Structure formats: C-alpha cells, structure tokens
Amino acid sequence: MNIGIVGLGLIGGSLGLDLRSQGYQVLGVSRREDTCHMAIETGVVDDASSELKLLAVADVVFICTPIAAIAPTIKQLIPHLSPDAIITDVGSVKTPIVESVAPLWHNFVGGHPMSGTAESGLSAAQRNLFAGNPYVLTPIETTPLKAVEQVEQIARSLQAKIYHCRPLDHDRAVSLISHLPVMVSAGLIAACTSEGDPAVLELAQNLASSGFRDTSRVGGGNPELGVMMARYNRQELLRSLHRYRYQLDELIAQIEQEDWNALEQQLQNNREARSHFSSCKG
Amino acid sequence: MNIGIVGLGLIGGSLGLDLRSQGYQVLGVSRREDTCHMAIETGVVDDASSELKLLAVADVVFICTPIAAIAPTIKQLIPHLSPDAIITDVGSVKTPIVESVAPLWHNFVGGHPMSGTAESGLSAAQRNLFAGNPYVLTPIETTPLKAVEQVEQIARSLQAKIYHCRPLDHDRAVSLISHLPVMVSAGLIAACTSEGDPAVLELAQNLASSGFRDTSRVGGGNPELGVMMARYNRQELLRSLHRYRYQLDELIAQIEQEDWNALEQQLQNNREARSHFSSCKG
C-alpha cells in the first residue's frame, strides 16, 4: 500500500519512520526541497517531492500541515488523487476541519494523534512517537466505513490507542484537558508578573518552587501554538473558560465567606476526580 | 549548643537529623510517646519527651507543629524556657504568627524553610531536606539582631538559601507562587469534572496527557493543607485570586474579541516572564 504524507515536520516525519518500518511505501510532500532531500536521506520516506502530483499513486494520504493549511492543501491535492484514495489529517481541532473538508472529499476521515514533544520539525521526528498514546478518529455519518477501518488499521500499526467520537466531542474534550490548561496556566504567570511591589515580585521569583513550575509550564509554552488552539477551537475553549471561571468564583466565594468545610470538600472531590484522568493515575 | 524541636514530623525530624550531624545537641518534643521513642531510635534527636520541660536547657527552639498549634504551643512553652532562649517557627504563613507570638516572647524570629516532600510524618524525615532551598526569615523592628543572626547561622548550616523580608511580603510572595497555584489548579479539575456530557467527560479522562497532569497536580493535593493555607493566608490569597481573575478575564476577552495579536503578545510576555522564576530557569 502507498501512503502519502503532506507536511514533513515532527508528526509527518515520525509517521513516515513508523509506517516504512511496517512495510508501507511512503511518499512525502514538503514545500521545501531541502526538507524533501533530508526526508529521503534520513529514511523518513521512500520518495519525496515538493509537488502534490507525487501522490497520484497514494492509497491513503495523511495531511500533516499546520491547521490553517489543512483545508487549502486538500483542495490543491484533490485533482491529483485517484478517486478511491482516502484522506486523513492530524489536526488538533476537528469540527472546522471536518466541516470544510467532508464536502470536498467523500473518503475523508478526521484524525488526531495526541503525541508530541517539546521540539518540532523533521529533525525532531522519531520512531514510536505514537505508541501508547491516544489517536482519535472523528468520522461523521457520511464517512464510508471502509475508509474509517483503513485509517484505524494504520493507526493501530503505530501501537496507538484508538478512540472514535464526534468532531464536536473531540473539540470539547481537548478544550478541557489541553487548551483550557494553557489559558489557566497563562493567567497564573500574568497574575504573578503583574505584582506591583518590586520587592514582593523579586521574592516571589526567588521562592517559586515545583508548584509554580508545574502549574505555569504550559502557560509559558509556544505562543503561536497557544493562539492557534484558541483561534481554531475558540467556541469550545470559551465554553471551557466560562465553566472554569464559574468554578474559580466558587472557590473565591468559599474563601471570602470562610466556608472551610465547603472548600475542603471541593479539594477532596478534586483529589478523587483527578485520579480518573489517564495521565494522573497511579 | 542545645536545640529544641517541638513537633517531630517531616520538617522537625529532618531538622533534627541535619542539626545533630552538625554537632548540635538536639532535644525533641512530641505529644506522642511512640514518636519520641522512634525519634531517639532513628537518631533524629539526642533525647525526646512528651513534656515541654525537657526544653528548659534549650538555647534555640524550633516550633514545627501545624500552623494552628504554633502560638498555643509557644504559650505553653514559655514558662519552661530560660530567659535568653530564642524561639523560631517553620510555619508557611508569617503575619498572623509573628503578630501573635512577638508580643509574647522578645527573642522570636519568624521563619519558613521552603522544603518538603509529598510524604509527611517522622518516617519521611530525611537528611539534606533544606539544602539548596529557600529559608525565609521574617524579623520585625523589635526582633533582637542577635536572635536573627543565631537562627540564620543555624539555617545556613543546613545549606539553605537565606532570605530576609517583612512577614507581609513573605505572605504576599507565597500567596502568588504557592497558594494561588493550588486554587488555580483546583479550579481546573473542578471545571473538567463539571462537564455535563458523560461522553465528553470520559473522552477528556482518556485523552488527558502531560499538560493536564502538570497543571492539575497541586490542585489535586492534600485537602487539609489547601484549607490551611487559605485559612491562614486568607487576605493575601484573596488579593492574589482577584489579581488572577482580572488576568483570566483579559484572556477571555482577547479570545471573545478574536484579538489574536494581543493574545500572542501576552503569551510571549509569559514565556519571557516565566524564565525569571527560580524553579523555571534553564
């Protein structure tokens, strides 16, 4: 089977490494010629080109560009594809992508492999990036079952944990556990930095330890990625933020009213609730 | 020199281990007889008793009880002390303690060694717990310089980094970098858990990864400790929470108004600002 990958960065490159080692023929497309050369040299792809027509023989194509480029790339790709080809993407937001792409190509399956590293680009590509991590597929009613099964089979070969859900449910879930933490954490850094007394700010900087470090980590991350998730998952992120603000106001009210029983109950519920989130178990 | 330690838990026990290895004579007091026996057996103290009169010969006494017991313990201790004895404490909030204890005992120096582990109790006590970590001293105008120097010398022998500041500045700084993160993080867990659609909640639990794990860590911690810091540092925590809420509302407004330039600028400022907090450097 021929697999096409458009966009040879961390995700596209890591996909290529794993899929080639599974015996698939992997064809890569990158806008940059030097990325194409590097992808061939490092064994990420069998062949590469800066032109989409390379993918005329592809059975399944993974779109691994930044979110903003996914739908435009697919529009450019379609004239080159065989009619039975399956397209899937790896974007971290699904509703806007599925809504814009599904009308263009019947055999489209929205996907989101939830793997990554702090690095980006082809040089950060690695084997087994997806192993043990979630890979969400978001077929809709009109998605052909055969296309879903095909993409799922490939995702399984990466040793990923497969989940199926509606695009909206995906976007709601990731807004809660991935995009909301970024904004919650960003607010913490902004609040500490806004301290007006320079002596207190300097002391805070000196005394900060693991609690501040961990809670502020994702809020001090890549600004472009933060804006991207807010932009493309805006509605669900706002829903999560308003939900969060309500809970924050509850905590503030408990402290203002010195309702220590209610606060302790909430913190006890939290400890129990947190243990049900997969990355926090054990 | 004879050093007394009242309260033989993680902090008191770890102090005993380090101070004995520095050659100090260490006398421990715990309400529980079995803790006294264990402290002697494990080499945490030279002698131990459940009665405060053991400390009649102490030159410096560390009060290592929970915050609520610090002032009452000092009241009970005073009749047994020699008039020149110095008292210090290890409470994580300083204004209420200094305000209640300073009028009772002239030679009192507020202190806060900012070290800890996830464990508590004497069995968690360890050598070098304080090495490399901040140890804040909060003398006030009436605190005798000799008493401050004495406590500082002992803290230095633990290889801690010494900071001096006003009790209020301490409480403001720790409310920002230690107590605020707990509430910010608690709100995140509560918001995710409050998701009303069971399918989305289950998906969120399955998809949660390192971003959720780190941002929710301190909000899923010990409920009693969380209530204790809110209770004893209430005013400063509320100040920090209102500051935080303002910043959160700014972020929400930027996303509502799709002001992506402002959001990106804020996230860029955050990345830069975070690098100035000691635990986040490098």
Search tags:
6-phosphogluconate dehydrogenase C-terminal fold, elongated, six-stranded parallel beta sheet, three-stranded mixed beta sheet, alpha/beta, 2 domains, Rossmann fold, homodimer, 282 residues, 11 helices
Separation, N- and C-terminal Cα atoms of chain A: 40 Å
Measured by DSSP, the beta-strand proportion of chain A falls in: 5-15%
Oligomerization state: homodimer
Helix count from the secondary structure assignment of chain A: 11
CATH homologous superfamily title of the largest domain in chain A: NAD(P)-binding Rossmann-like Domain
- Give the mean pLDDT of chain A: 96
How does CATH name the architecture of the largest domain in chain A? 3-Layer(aba) Sandwich
Major sheet summary line of chain A: 6 strands, parallel
Q: How many domains make up the 3D coordinates of chain A? A: 2
CATH class of the largest domain in chain A: Alpha Beta
Helix fraction bin of chain A:
40-55%
Radius of gyration of chain A: 22 Å
SSE succession of chain A: EHEHEEHEHEEEHEHHHHHH
Q: What is the 3D shape of chain A?
A: elongated
